[in-house]
Design a protein that fits this description.
The complex is a heterodimer of chains A (448) and B (176). Chain A is mostly helical and 448 residues long. Chain A is built from 16 helices and no strands. Helix content of chain B is 44%, strand content 14%. Chain B has a four-stranded antiparallel sheet with strand order 2-3-1-4. The chains are: A mainly alpha (448), B alpha+beta (176). The interface between A and B is large, with 63 and 63 residues.
């Protein structure tokens, strides 16, 4: 009796060939080419926006005083949140010995890497003078000035760059044995050379494997608290400030829960079409989708608790500015955004209590898309509504995005899709050696 | 010195490889290497009972990274570039913790990866085994046990005889 983590009868050879051949033998499908074309076009829009931004300045966006943090910050927080699920899956689920993780960790890590990379671009674009971003780096400069270590913006720089580096290392280390498989199965000279170069000459010797597993486990142990730290520090960008609606101790856990919520929604949005187009239904089974949906539901409840506590704390504090912002979110200019996000993030995921919904691919895909939109709106809500409605009524002025704001948001989604589509063509979308391990475990299960 | 890297048996599954490695150990062979497409539990312990030093190395670098990160902040904020913000202490340690944490993780993670790669003698793009027939299956579905030719008291005939006794798919000679 085999579990539902792997369907069908797969052996070491067939599972290797199946995943490796998606990269090495499979012809380019017209749908892939179409997607790549659309994503490429959007990427050009993004690049065009960046060029125009650098040429003209941040005035092309809707930002002004009092709302100087526009879409750039919203998109930054949103993307970095999406970039949390991958490392969570790889690190926490590895430490917890969840074997269903083996079939989804690779592409979730890739998703994390691309999302975190795109996230990292936004704060730089957000700077009025982006060419000075390197001032965040502590180096002995001729001005004799050092970064201000008491600023969460400097912490952010360290957190994001560490997170990107560690995610890349984690992803690459996991890829080494699979790159060796591609090297050994590729036909063309160039492919063998490139994959061979990247595989570093991996041979799979027993002592090498032992050291590899030790390093992998250590990386997981290091990445697990890192994931939690990154969004916590992002939330401190807000919570350290005294702006009403920002200044709250619930922010770090609330942001981390939101990040995992949004990240797992993105895992579903990517996994569902991918398993279908690449015929991976045997590897990414309904069981995987069901588990991801349960995590989505759990983190969604944490997020809902966060919304509740935000309002409760505002009133419990008795602080008139906090109360005013809490009411303004529900009844003010941004009320439609507030109620939409409550609907998408709190009401919609409740459907996942039903087993039938968790096992329906179409429902999960729809929930994934809706939660991603809802989480973007939540980030928008937090960033904009507080700034637009601070202490002095004479300073109140809502933020209204411009066409460039929307174009660059869409462009960044295009860039993400472009990276991901290139990834599934060039590298194994699932971890081949961990799938072989899964085959071995399933075999053991049958004998026992 | 023989012009031989070693003699190698090609085996069908992980149980055969583990059993072969145990037999080789019990028969007193030295210079035994085992190759598999995924980590086989117990194999490395059979061939090399000594624990890896990697975790200690990672710990060391983590401590170094944290200390270096904290020192950087202390030195710049207290000695090199002190700014008086409303008379608050220059050495405001609680606000130095986030960056200290990040540099700890960064150094430890780099140490884990670099230590793993260097400890495994990689990158090594050319290796005698890559020229051996069938060895490309070591990253797919075959398992190999190799007796190194440069081991003391290595004898090709005896090695061949021992590997044949394991009932392998075939025995392969690996040129140096």
């Amino acid at each position: 009796m085999s579990s539902e983590v792997l369907r069908g009868r797969w052996g070491y050879a067939s599972v290797t060939d199946k995943i490796a051949d998606l990269v090495l033998r499979r012809r380019t499908h017209w749908l892939w080419a179409l997607g790549f074309g659309i994503a490429g076009t959007l990427t050009l829009v993004f690049l065009g926006g960046i060029v125009w931004l650098f040429a003209v300045g941040v005035g092309i966006w809707g930002v002004n005083i009092p709302v100087a943090w526009g879409f750039a910050i919203v998109n930054f927080v949103w993307w970095i949140g999406i970039g949390h699920a991958g490392t969570f899956i790889s690190a926490f689920l590895l430490l917890l010995r969840q074997k269903w993780r083996n079939s989804i960790n690779r592409f979730a890590e890739a998703m994390t890497l691309f999302a975190a990379g795109i996230a990292g671009m936004w704060p730089i674009l957000h700077l009025g003078r982006p060419w000075f971003f390197y001032w965040l780096v502590p180096y002995p400069d001729v001005m004799n000035v050092w970064p201000q270590w008491r600023s969460p913006l400097v912490w952010d720089f360290f957190a994001i760059s560490t997170y990107l580096t560690v995610s890349l290392l984690f992803w690459y280390v996991g890829l080494i044995p699979d790159l060796a498989t591609l090297r050994d199965r590729a036909h063309g000279v160039w492919r063998r050379m490139i994959y061979g170069f990247l595989a570093l000459g991996w041979r799979g010797e027993a002592r090498h494997w032992a050291r590899f597993e030790t390093a992998y486990l250590l990386l997981a142990g290091l990445a697990a608290p890192l994931v939690i730290s990154v969004h916590s520090i992002v939330s401190l960008d807000f919570a350290i400030g005294n702006t009403p609606g920002y200044h709250s101790t619930i922010f770090p856990p609330y942001f981390v829960a939101g990040a995992l919520f949004c990240g797992f929604a993105m895992v579903l949005v990517i996994a569902i079409p991918m398993r279908r187009f690449l015929r991976l239904e045997d590897f990414i089974t309904i069981r995987h989708l069901d588990n991801a949906a349960k995590i989505l539901l759990a983190t969604g409840l944490l997020v809902a608790y966060g919304y509740g506590m935000e309002v409760f704390t505002a009133f419990y504090s008795g602080d008139e500015y906090e109360i005013a912002i809490a009411l303004d979110r529900m009844k003010g200019f941004y009320a439609p955004v507030y109620w939409t996000l409550i609907c998408l993030n709190v009401v919609v995921p409740q459907i996942l209590w039903w087993r039938r919904a968790r096992r329906s691919v179409a429902t999960l895909f729809a929930v994934g898309i809706l939660v991603n939109i809802g989480m973007w709106l939540e980030r928008f809500m937090i960033v904009e509504s507080s700034l637009a409605h601070d202490f002095l009524p004479s300073a109140w002025r809502p933020f209204i995005p411009t066409g460039w704001d929307w174009a660059m948001l869409a462009g960044s989604v295009g860039l993400f899709a472009l990276f991901f589509l290139a990834f599934v063509r060039l590298l194994p979308a699932l971890s081949i050696f961990e799938m072989r391990e899964l085959v071995e475990e399933e075999k053991e299960g049958e004998v026992a | 010195m023989s012009a031989l890297y070693g003699v190698m048996a090609e085996l069908a599954d992980e149980k055969a490889l583990l059993a072969a490695a145990r037999e080789a150990r019990d028969a007193g062979w030295s210079g035994v290497e085992a190759y598999s497409p995924f980590p086989v539990e117990g194999l490395a312990e059979t061939l090399a009972p000594r624990a890896s030093r990697l975790p200690f190395f990672v710990l060391l670098f983590g401590i170094f990274g944290g200390a270096a990160g904290y020192f950087l902040q202390w030195y710049t904020a207290v000695i090199s570039y002190p700014i008086n913000v409303g008379g608050r202490p220059l050495h405001s340690w609680p606000e130095f913790i986030p960056v200290t944490f990040e540099t700890t993780v960064l150094f430890a993670a780099l140490a884990a990866v670099i230590g793993m790669i260097a400890g495994n003698g990689l990158p090594r793009l050319r290796h005698p085994l890559f020229d051996a027939p069938h060895f490309d299956l070591a990253t797919r579905n075959r398992f190999f046990l190799c007796l190194r030719g440069d081991a003391p008291r290595f004898d090709e005939e005896r090695a061949r005889g021992f590997l044949e006794s394991l009932r392998p798919i075939r025995v392969i000679e690996v040129a140096a």
